[in-house]
């Protein structure tokens, strides 16, 4: 993918990264507002895949989501979106998983919620970048070479990271604004009846 070319938001393709031990609100909080960009015809050709290295992904209490892409090359996407959760603590040491995430090195937008940023860090995407994560993991985030911010949403070029779980909805609306403008974000916020 040629990063010098301006991005056409009209046919973006997103990869939602799923894994065992994810916090599903991290994922759904971003997914819901972004999906409305398609449903409400702001980006009618927007597409996405649910990507994982396993056939099923469950949170700590067993709520299971089925990915539609397994161990796929992440390089063709315009953005990867990585949730957090307890599972990230083991996955940062899982080289098969990190090598898979690393296939997104040329993907323009790298986005995370909560401790999903630790996975981006383990893949080498945060060196000398400003980023945030769950407030309990600021020191861990710094170990990946990131300049740690305590802000709720942190943007460093096309790297966008968000804090703890409730920030996921704010992140989704932030991306709606980024990709389709403030009018789209405001109308999506209204449809969600969200006052955050």
Mind explaining what this structure looks like?
Helix content is 33%, strand content 19%. The chain has 196 residues and is α/β, with parallel strands linked by helices. The protein has one domain: Rossmann fold. The strands form 3 sheets. A 7-stranded mixed beta sheet has the order 5-2-1-6-7-11-10, sandwiched between helices. Helix 1 packs parallel to helix 6 (167-180). Residues 1-6 have low confidence and may be disordered.
Radius of gyration: 15 Å
Number of strands: 11
Strand residues, percent: 15-25%
Structural class: alpha/beta
Ends apart, CA distance between termini: 35 Å
The geometry reads as globular
In short:
The protein has 196 residues and is α/β, with parallel strands linked by helices.
Task: Identify the notable features of this structure and list them briefly.
globular; Rossmann fold; 196 residues
Blueprint of the fold:
Elements: E1 13-17, H1 24-39, E2 47-52, E3 57-58, E4 64-65, E5 69-70, E6 79-82, H2 88-91, H3 95-102, E7 109-113, H4 116-122, E8 130-131, H5 138-142, E9 147-148, E10 153-156, E11 159-162, H6 167-180, H7 182-192
Parallel strand pairs: 1-2, 1-6, 2-5, 6-7, 7-11, 8-9
Antiparallel strand pairs: 3-4, 10-11
Helix pairs in contact: 1-6, 6-7
């Amino acid at each position: 993918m040629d990063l010098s070319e301006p991005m056409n938001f009209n046919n973006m393709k997103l990869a939602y990264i799923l894994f065992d031990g994810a916090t599903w609100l991290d994922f759904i909080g971003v997914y819901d507002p972004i999906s409305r960009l398609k449903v409400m015809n702001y980006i009618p050709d927007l597409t996405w895949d649910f990507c994982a290295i396993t056939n099923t992904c469950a949170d700590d209490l067993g709520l299971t989501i089925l990915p539609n892409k397994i161990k796929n090359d992440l390089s063709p996407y315009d953005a990867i979106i990585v949730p957090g959760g307890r599972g990230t603590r083991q996955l940062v040491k899982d080289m098969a998983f990190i090598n898979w995430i690393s296939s997104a090195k040329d993907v323009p937008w790298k986005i995370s919620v909560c401790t999903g940023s630790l996975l981006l860090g383990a893949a080498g995407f945060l060196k000398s970048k400003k980023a945030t994560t769950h407030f309990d993991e600021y020191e861990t985030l710094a170990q990946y070479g990131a300049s740690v911010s305590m802000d709720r949403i942190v943007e460093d070029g096309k790297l966008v990271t968000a804090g703890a779980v409730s920030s996921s909805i704010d992140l989704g609306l932030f991306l709606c604004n980024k990709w389709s403008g403030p009018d789209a974000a405001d109308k999506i916020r209204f449809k969600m009846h969200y006052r955050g």
